């Protein structure tokens, strides 16, 4: 962007950047059709895999099933109860159980994930429209980023919140020069909704507003400073109800569980583009960079001045963020993917020339197909283990108590193992079982285990015990401190041993009877004394 363009933009209200010429490459309707077609392609792996191998996803889905059917199922009602509280992790809990009334909980989860994708991409397009004053197809280049490492971890509420935050930034930009009451009221609605999505999603929205208002503060520097500062500070008013919600939320009790880590910031940047193959990730990055360089050399790309302010603000926030915040891991590493969508929305491209349009469409198709094929092929290779696990669940008696253990301490660290981390929670959905790894952390989830069974589940979202620790604690308490798995032969009916080697031996033949030896897991029935 030239200096003249920068001066012109600063003189206009926020969001109005005059387009070059009067011929638009794609109309709003054509961009909407492109959005729908690309969304259809992007969602193929989700529709073809009712149970995608995402780390936390099955655990969340089990909670959705308990909310939807817990009162109708005697075994679920015996083990679990729902404690509705204002916590910043509720959006999936409010939507999916309602959908599960008219479809299976698996289909409801699929609909929710596709809605996440649609919300993010439509939000990026709308934010771009608010900034440049016309519809642009450029934000569609972000489609391959819908699949990323954060998505594989299964942080569904947060990812849903990214899309909502983009829509909130678009609304703020559209209403920035309207009456202050309308702008602040709309922002308050978005802030409250984002609070119930995830605290990190609310933070993304706050960072976006901060960047917009810093840019506007500078762009209107000719006006009196006191008035500009009052207008700047007023941006925080919509967050006051959020602080009130936090004060009455049990999440506030987790504030001390916050710490920083110096290492891992680069990993967080890689997570925005990395899925299963490093080669594919860097190939896609190389294609996009090559296309961007070609477009810049021909003066086809335009960066809204907000882009540079947004980049600086996002970078500073990312460097300052802790690794764990309110007992939530990856508090910093989950941010770059949200910032990427925000930054992409601040870029426009001139597609008036036919060769540029064709090249741009080819870029969209190639990058999206490469990413979708990568994900679909990887999920197909992992589906064997998933199918075996679902079959093994049928061997569990309804209403049983299931203990989850690891065959190796570092199990679940590799992306290919994510699907097994919480797979045992399928027993909650299919067999109404009590599973030790179900999410029941106060302040993070609304699910609770009833007092009679609360002592034999993991209420801290920790790592399951190794089989070696189980053998030590079979007849007595653990050596360091009491654990929920102490005296496990008496307290449980089955053991899922995860991340096993092929044809691994029974670790305790006197106590455990092998029911199924699957790919990277084993299911044992605990022998009860006659």
Question: What can you tell me about this protein's structure?
Answer:
The chain has helices at residues 3-11, 28-42, 44-47, 57-69, 74-79, 91-99, 105-132, 149-153, 156-175, 180-197, 199-219, 225-233, 240-247, 265-271, 278-297, 305-320, 335-344, 354-393, 418-421, 426-431, 467-472, 488-491; strands spanning 80-82, 301-303, 347-349, 401-406, 434-435, 447-449, 494-498, 512-518, 521-526. With 530 residues, the protein is of the alpha/beta class. The protein folds into 2 domains: 84-350, no CATH class; 381-526, no CATH class. The strands form 3 sheets. It has a 5-stranded mixed sheet. The protein has a two-stranded antiparallel sheet with strand order 1-6. A two-stranded antiparallel ribbon has the order 2-3. Helix 16 (305-320) runs antiparallel to helix 17. 46% of the residues are buried. The model is unreliable at 1-13 and 15-23 (pLDDT under 50).
């Amino acid at each position: 962007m030239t200096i003249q363009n920068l001066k012109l933009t600063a003189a206009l209200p926020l969001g109005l950047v005059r387009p070059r010429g009067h011929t638009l490459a794609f109309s709003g309707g054509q961009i909407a059709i492109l959005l729908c077609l690309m969304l259809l392609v992007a969602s193929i792996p989700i529709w073809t895999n009712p149970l995608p191998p995402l780390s936390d996803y099955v655990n969340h889905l089990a909670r959705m099933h308990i909310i939807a059917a817990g009162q109708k199922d005697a075994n679920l009602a015996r083990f679990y109860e729902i404690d509705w509280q204002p916590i910043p992790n509720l959006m999936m809990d409010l939507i999916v159980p309602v959908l599960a009334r008219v479809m299976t909980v698996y289909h409801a989860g699929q609909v929710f994930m596709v809605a996440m994708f649609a919300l993010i991409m439509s939000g990026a397009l709308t934010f771009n429209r608010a900034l440049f004053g016309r519809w642009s197809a450029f934000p569609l280049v972000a489609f391959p980023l819908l699949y990323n490492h954060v998505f594989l971890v299964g942080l569904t509420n947060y990812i849903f919140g990214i899309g909502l935050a983009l829509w909130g930034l678009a609304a703020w930009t559209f209403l920035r020069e309207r009456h202050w009451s309308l702008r602040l009221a709309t922002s308050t609605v978005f802030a409250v909704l984002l609070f119930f999505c995830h605290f990190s999603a609310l933070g993304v929205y706050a960072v976006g507003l901060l960047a917009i208002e810093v840019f506007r503060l500078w762009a209107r520097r000719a006006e009196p400073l006191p008035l500009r500062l009052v207008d700047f500070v007023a941006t925080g008013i919509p967050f006051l109800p959020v602080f009130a919600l936090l004060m009455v939320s049990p999440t506030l009790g987790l504030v001390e569980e916050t710490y920083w880590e110096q290492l891992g910031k680069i990993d967080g940047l890689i997570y925005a583009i990395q899925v299963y193959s490093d080669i594919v990730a860097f190939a896609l990055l190389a294609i996009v960079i090559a296309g961007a360089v070609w477009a810049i050399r021909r003066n086809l790309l335009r960066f809204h001045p907000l882009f540079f302010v947004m980049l600086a603000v996002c970078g500073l926030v990312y460097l300052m963020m802790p690794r764990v915040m309110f007992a939530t891991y990856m508090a910093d590493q989950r941010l770059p993917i949200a910032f990427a969508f925000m930054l992409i929305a601040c870029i426009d491209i001139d597609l008036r020339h036919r060769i540029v349009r064709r090249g741009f469409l080819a870029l969209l198709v190639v990058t999206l197909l490469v990413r979708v094929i990568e994900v679909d092929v990887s999920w197909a290779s992992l589906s064997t283990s998933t199918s075996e696990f679902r079959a093994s669940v049928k061997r569990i008696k309804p209403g049983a108590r299931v203990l989850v253990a690891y065959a190796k301490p570092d199990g679940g660290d590799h992306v290919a193992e994510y699907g097994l981390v919480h797979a045992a929670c399928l027993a909650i959905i299919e067999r109404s079982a009590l599973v030790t790894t179900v999410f029941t952390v106060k302040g993070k989830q609304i699910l609770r285990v009833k007092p009679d069974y609360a002592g034999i589940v993991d209420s801290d979202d920790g790592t399951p015990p190794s089989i070696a620790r189980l053998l030590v604690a079979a007849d007595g308490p653990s050596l360091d401190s009491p654990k929920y798995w102490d005296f496990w032969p008496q307290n449980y009916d089955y053991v899922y041993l995860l991340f096993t080697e092929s044809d691994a031996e029974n670790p305790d033949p006197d106590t455990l009877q092998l029911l199924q030896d699957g790919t990277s897991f084993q299911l044992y029935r605990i022998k009860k004394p006659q």
